Amino acid sequence: MSHYLLRYDLAPDYLARRATFRDAHLALAWRSADEGHLILGGAVDDPVESALLLFGDAASAAAFAAADPYVLNGLVRAWRVSPWLTVVGKDAAMPLRPA
After folding, report:
1. Per-residue pLDDT for 24 more than 80?
2. Residue 42 gets which letter from DSSP?
3. Measured between alpha carbons, how far is 76 from 41 in angstroms, rounded to an integer?
4. Cα(32)–Cα(30) distance, integer angstroms
5. How confident is the model at residue 7 (pLDDT cuts 50, 70, 90)?
6. For residue 72, which of 38, 16, 28 has the smallest C-alpha distance?
7. Which residues of 39-55 are buried (b: 16+ CB within 10 A; e: fewer)?
8. Most C-beta atoms within 10 A of its C-beta, which of 39, 68, 72, 77?
């Protein structure tokens, strides 16, 4: 399995405005997870400054961002999808062990 990170840079007023869109965002996220696309997701830091969502393919990550109420309503200032070469762990895309 390949891994792709969807990275969100959040607007400064994200926490103040999040409640209005949170249920719709979470419904989209759980639907994506139930369909096997979204593996993990959540906010980063305290206070929240960004979010990371782990997907199994780049197209699903981009489609998620394009439909996300947080993106559509300006709670996300910028987003990008990056391949993540995972090498350690039972679900690593390319497991590498010491010689």
Report:
1. yes
2. E
3. 15
4. 5
5. very high
6. 28
7. eebebeeeeeebbebbb
8. 68
How many CB atoms are closer than 10 A to CB 83?
A: 11
Structure confidence at residue 53 (pLDDT):
98
- Determine the Cα–Cα distance for residues 2 and 86; give it in Å rounded to an integer: 8
Contact in structure between 27 and 41 (CB atoms under 8 Å): no
List the structure tokens of 22.
């949170």
Residue 46: predicted pLDDT: 85
- DSSP letters, 23-65, are HHHHHHHHHHHHTT-EEEEEEETTTT-EEEEEESSHHHHHHHH
pLDDT recorded at residue 45: 87
Alpha carbon separation from 31 to 13, 28, 49 (Å, rounded): 26, 5, 24
